[in-house]
Task: inverse folding
């Protein structure tokens, strides 16, 4: 009981100036908001630093290790701040990084 609690708690998500920090017990992950690729609601039951199935899938790159499922509260306010600070735009049921609008080299 006490060992499990130490591995899971504290569970928190901190939206800092330019980064998202996810703390799950002794583990801590910091992701630059500029690296975020997408955020979408999910009820995926996979193991993650989330205590609820009402989760957000946060992806910052391709592959299995560049994604995390989180369950912040209050969810809507956290999501609004995260997507605004990361510069993500709505698409379908989620938010994505918009395509670059900078001109291609040689244009």
Result:
């Amino acid at each position: 009981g006490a060992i499990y609690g130490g591995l899971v708690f504290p569970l928190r998500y901190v939206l800092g100036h330019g980064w998202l920090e996810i703390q799950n017990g002794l583990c801590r992950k910091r992701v630059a908001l500029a690296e975020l690729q997408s955020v979408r609601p999910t009820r995926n039951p996979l193991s993650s630093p989330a205590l609820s199935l009402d989760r957000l899938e946060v992806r910052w790159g391709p592959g299995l290790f560049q994604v995390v499922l989180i369950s912040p509260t209050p969810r809507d306010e956290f999501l609004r701040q995260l997507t605004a600070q990361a510069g993500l735009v709505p698409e379908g049921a989620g938010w994505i990084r918009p395509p670059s609008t900078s001109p291609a080299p040689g244009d």
